[in-house]
Amino acid sequence: MGKGAKGKGKKSGKSSGKEGRISSKKAAKELEAQVAEDEVIAAHEEAAVEEIKDVANALKVGKGFVLADVDTSGTPGFTGDKIAGKAALKACEAELSDLLERLFAASTAGSRQSLLLVVQGMDTSGKGGIMRHVISVNPQGVKATGFKAPTKEELAHDFLWRIDKALPGAGQLGVFDRSHYEDVLVVRVHELVPEAVWSKRYAQINAFERRVIAAGTTVIKVMTHISKDEQKARLMERLDRPDKHYKYNPGDVDERSHWGAYMEAYQAVLDKTSTVGAPWHVVPSDRKWYARLAVQQLILEALRGMNLQWPPADFDVEAEKKRLSAS
After folding, report:
1. What is the pLDDT of residues 101-144, one digit of tens each?
2. How many CB atoms lie within 10 A of CB 161?
3. In the prediction, which pLDDT does 2 show?
4. Are 281 and 274 contacting, i.e. CB atoms less than 8 angstroms apart?
5. How far is CA 152 from CA 147, 149, 156, 158, 165, in A?
6. How many Å apart are CA 258 and CA 198, to the nearest integer?
7. Which pLDDT does position 271 carry in this prediction?
8. How many CB atoms are located within 10 Å of the residue 205 CB?
9. Which of 25, 40, 135, 183 could bridge 159 with an S-S bond, Cβ 3.0-4.6 Å?
10. The model's pTM
């Protein structure tokens, strides 16, 4: 028995070593491919920016908008391909970082301006990727909040109570991964409260957002829109890859049976809450690179519209230079 156990241990060790070498080679090839792609992207940055057209207007929800008519693999407002899209995203990072720093700096001089990005979408629609690839350029003034099922404390208050607490402060970019819209989406689909309750929430949400805007916050609302087939492929990838298992939730498969009901609920949200002050933007998200670029452009347009200036010094600059030189 002891000998058998010993022999088994040796075999397992060899197998483990071989798997380790294969894994290392695979990682090396992936790194090499990424480096090569990065070089191509860098070479295309300047030209790729020219492919960006009017993304915001192309995605804005207006009167008569029909969600079912959206091509989830489309690239509205961008005429380039995948490489160009990644290059354009990279090329615009410096401006985005600069404007976010200006937003934060202005708050130190008393500005009340802030920006709120609300991201809604079906599971696997790329909400997390937006945080990693778009917002991470300047995390200093970012306040990110992920809304899950409400706690007992939150349920004891009005549905907007927890949302109000999570709003960005002056100079901040607030990002909501899901939001108050869950209370007219999940709640509606699963009949968690009577229709007489959730049907009143559209008007309550509109009134709430008007107050937020009046207080100095610009609101960007995004629906990351994927097809049911694309969601299936992304969920399967999570099952196929051990490094993605932590992202997989068996409940996501159950939710797929409610796809039609969710699309009806989203259509109602778009119809009732896409306002002049806080319009919705539906971002086709079957192509992850495009969704990230589109959201980046929506944020950039909002920040550009704020006319952000560096705050003037509240001290005598030349006098301070002399004092510093003499110190």
Report:
1. 999 999 999 999 999 999 999 999 998 889 888 987 777 789 99
2. 14
3. 43
4. no
5. 14, 10, 6, 12, 16
6. 18
7. 98
8. 23
9. 183
10. 0.86
* Cβ-contact 229, 288 below 8 angstroms: no
Q: pLDDT at position 92, please?
A: 97
Distance spanning both ends of the chain, measured CA to CA: 80
Q: Provide the token pair at 185.
A: 């989406």
Distances (CA, A) of 83 to 35, 42, 127: 13, 10, 21
Q: Judging by DSSP bridges, how do beta strands 280-284 and 217-225 pair with one another?
A: parallel
Three-state helix/strand/coil letters over 265-292 = HHHHHHHHHCCCCCCEEEEECCCHHHHH
Q: How many residues does the chain have?
A: 327
Q: Are 231 and 123 in contact (CB under 8 A)?
A: yes
Residue with tokens 């407002």, as numbered in its chain: 77
Q: Report yes or no: 126 and 89 within 8 Å, Cβ to Cβ.
A: no
Query: Tens of pLDDT along 273-326?
Result: 999 999 999 999 999 999 999 999 999 999 999 999 999 999 999 999 999 999
Residues 140-159: tens digit of each pLDDT:
789 999 999 999 999 999 99
